What we know:
Blueprint: H1 6-18, H2 22-36, E1 41-47, E2 53-59, E3 70-72, H3 77-84, E4 89-91, H4 94-100, H5 105-110, E5 115-123, E6 126-135, H6 142-149, H7 152-161
Amino acid sequence: MSMIETEDHAHLARVTANARQPEQILSAVAEVVRQRLGFGLLTMLKLTPDGDEVQRIFTTDPHNYPVSGRERLGLTDWGRHVFVDQRPFLGPDIPAVNWAFPADCELIFSLGLGSTMNLPVTALGKTLGSLNILHAEGKHGLSHLDAAMTLIPYLAVPFLAAGGSDGAVDTWR
């Protein structure tokens, strides 16, 4: 598959400028990832204002990974890497996925997934959440991670729009 092209960025810029609902932007980003990088599962998690919980605000697998209530984050080494240090994580194989998601790895593996890219979504120095791209083992490398990072600026607006003044997350459904 080819990497993300100039026309993809132009398309996402138009969608971002014209969107009336945050999900329009989230879906457009997911479609670019599907076409250019591929995935078996793509989710987006938004941090609560206190940073203690995450809310899934987008998913390509609503049966196994539904847009639902909040989940306690429990700051792991993976969580610190992505959410605190604001560094993307590339887990290209099953041992890396197991390290990152020990509580969820059985479900991940049962879906034929064995690699992960987790990219912090940030704006103005604050972590808003993460873009999570899972695929079969060995499907993504550093060039895929670099390409996916170019999509993060399009996610800031919908992630910021996802919370009301009380920090609640809208699901736009």
